[in-house]
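Input chain follows. Return C-alpha cells only.
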Amino acid sequence: MDVQRFPDCVKLLDHLGLYLRDHAKVRILVISEMGEPLVDVNSWEVMEKLHKLAEPERFTHIRLQKSPALEFLLFEGLFQDREIMSYVIKNTNNSKFKAQGSNVVLTVKIKEDSYDYPTVDEWETYFKTINGKRNWSECHPGERADTVIIKNLPTKWYSLDSNNPKPCERFLRDAFALYGTIRKVDYEDCVEDGELGDDITALGNQFGIPLTFNAYIQYQNYAHFKAAMSGLKGKQLMRLFPGQKPTFSPFVVDYERNGFLTDKKHRLRKLERERLAEEAKRKHEAYMRQQNELMKKQLEKRQRKKRKMEEKKLEDAKRKAKGPKRKKKNKSDIGHSEMKQIENLEDECKQVAAKLLKGIMLKIAANERERLLKRRSKEKTRSVHEAAERADEEAAGEKAAQKEENGGKEAGRCQEKSQRAQEEKEE
C-alpha cells in the first residue's frame, strides 16, 4: 500500500513511516424509538451493532461517552478519511435495530462532529490575564504562547529500541520542525483510558511500559507556535510502511498553560532524571556484581566436580592396572528364583536380628532393675545401722551423766558425816 493513495497526508518522519492525516470524527446518538429509558440495553452490544452497520468500512476508533441520562447513548467515532466518513453517515443515519434480549427498537443518529480546538483569541487572552497574576513575562520562554502539547502519542512509534520503548527527543524535533524552529522538547508518560485508537490499544501494556506519552514542543517564536497549532488542527497520526496496512492513532492538541518548559522547571526535571538514571545505573551495577559472583561460585563448583571426576577416573585406571579383581555377583545376573530366596533369607535375618535385639534389651532392663533394687536395699540397711549407732551413743551419754550426778551426791554425804563426827569429838 503506497502513500500516494492518501493525497491529504503530510509527512512527519519518512523513515519511521509517520504521517498526518485529516481527522474524520463523528458523533453517534442512539435513542429509543418510543422514548423508553435504555436501562436494559448493553452498550457493548450496541457498539458491535454500529460496527456491523458501518460495513464494509470500519471505525479506526469508537468509544462510549458519558451519557447524562438513560434516555440515550452517545458515542464518538473516528474514520481513516472524510470519504469513508461521508459514506458511513449516508448509509447509517436513521438506521433502526432491536436491542438484543429486549423489545426496545433503537434509532441511530450520526453526524460529523465539530472539533473542540483552542483559538488564537483564547490563548492570547489567557496569557495576557495570567502574566499579571503569576508575575510572568513574555520575554521569558515558557511564560508566553510558545509551547504546544500533543497528547496520547504512541510511545513505540517514537522510540529507538522496540524492546525498551522510550520516546526519542531527536525524533520529536525532526517531526515537528515541520512548522518552525524548535527551542526545547520534553515529554511525560501517560495512559488515558478511552483516548487510544483500537489499533493502538490492541498492542497492550503487558510489561508495565506506558503506551502513550505527552509531547511538549517549544518553538523559537510566536509565528512558529501559531503555525503548529494551525497545522495540527483536525489531524490524526498515521503509520504506514510499504506493503502494509496503515495504522491510525488520534491525538489531542493544546497550548501549554503552566510553564512546563520554563528554564527553571526544565533544569530541575533534567537534574531529577540524571539522579534517577544514576540510581538505576548503580542498581544495575550491583545486580551485575551479584550475578558475576553467582556465576563465579557456579564455575568453581563445576571445576571441583570436574576435578573429583578426574581423580576418580585416575583411581579406577590404577586399580585396573594392578590386576582384575573378583567380580561380585550383581543382582542383574541372578535369576528370579534365586532373587526370591535371597529376599526371603534377608527377611528371616531381619526377623532374627529383631528378636535378638528385643531379648538383649529385655535382659539389660532386668539387670538394671536388679541393680537398682540391690542399691536401694543397701541404702536402707546403712540407714538402719546409722540410726542404731546414734541411739547407743545417746544412751551411753545419759548413763555417764547420771553416774556423775550420783558420785557428787555420795561425796556430799561423806563430808557431812565427817563434820558431824568432828563436832561430837569436840563436845
